[in-house]
Amino acid sequence: GSPGVGTLETEVFRQTQTFLDLRTAAVFSALQVVFVLASVWLTQRLSHRATTALRLQHPVRQPLTRTDWFPLTATMFAVVVIILLPMVTLVERSLITDDGYGLDNYRLLVTSSGSGFAGGTTAAQALEHSLKIALDATIITLIAAMLISLIITRDAKHPILARGQRFLDTFIMLPMGVSSVTIGFGFLVSIHAVNPALGQSGVLVPLAQAVVALPLVVRTLVPVLAAVDPKQRQAAAVLGAPPARVLRTIDGPYLLRAMGLAAGLSFSVALGEFGATSFLASPDYQTLPVYIVRLLNRPGADNFGMALAAAVVLGIVASIALLLGDRIRPRLRRSA
After folding, report:
1. Which residues span the domain enclosing 258?
2. Is there a domain that residue 154 lies in?
3. What would the pLDDT profile of 188-238 be if each residue is shown by its tens digit?
4. b vs e for 242-258, b when ≥16 Cβ sit within 10 Å of the residue's Cβ?
5. 245 CB contacts (<8 Å, ≥6 apart)?
6. Is residue 74 included in any domain, yes or no?
7. Residue 37 to residue 170: CA distance in whole angstroms
8. Tally of domains in the chain
9. Structure pTM?
10. Would you tell me which of 32, 102, 180, 235 could form a disulfide with 275, CB atoms 3.0–4.6 Å apart?
């Protein structure tokens, strides 16, 4: 977003980190929240009647027809140009050294902290920090997402409860539209009024990352829980099953089917999160995305090469987390 015309997100970051103007940053953050809230509310209103439960049966594969080839070709072209090409270019650039192609940039990730740094953290240590923080954020996200998803998908008889469900469904989508920079800034301003040292201690980083990942995980679990027939819960209750047992035996198997993907998605989002983390991370306990940006802000070929290599490593680890989470689903589906 800079140099040139920036967005609300980049302006919040610049006003806070560069100019230390918290008042202007707060105005931009408030504007963004208002716009996103209106957008989410309108979207929820328009899609409320069109929402359907997820069918958990095995899909029936349909043969491709002539009308399918054009959208398929356009989609594959977009995937190659927009996704694969930048990734391949990133990997290729990370292998360039003074003597041609090699793994020197990747070796520096383990042995060097980069030139021009005041601290001595290496990229390998930053990755270790990221993994630990992402694990904590994933646990927080899964617990909160399961509770929220169960509340949203329950059949509310009273109109007030139904409105409460719709409000919660709308409110929980805010972090998906609101910039993570705004979320981190909100945490920083809120905590600064109570305990300024806590805002830069790194304790709040897993919580902020969980807020960023929460809407995606909730949207992963809600369609699965919506597929549960309410009559199953009613039948179990009539047979004398307490609420805890109904939750374990009726909703539990459905939750397990989506839990692997939800965990992988949450972990990947938390692992690569930068906006909120940049406001709250401790200087002595940096995550890998923050470390990459620090490398890019320092002149020197080694710093740039290390940033490229670190970005490749971050992408590989996040992809592995997603693939492992996705592979859990078929096993649970067959055993359910």
Report:
1. 103-335
2. yes
3. 777 766 776 676 677 888 998 999 999 989 988 888 888 887 788 878 888
4. eeeebbeebbeebbbbb
5. 236
6. no
7. 8
8. 1
9. 0.77
10. 180
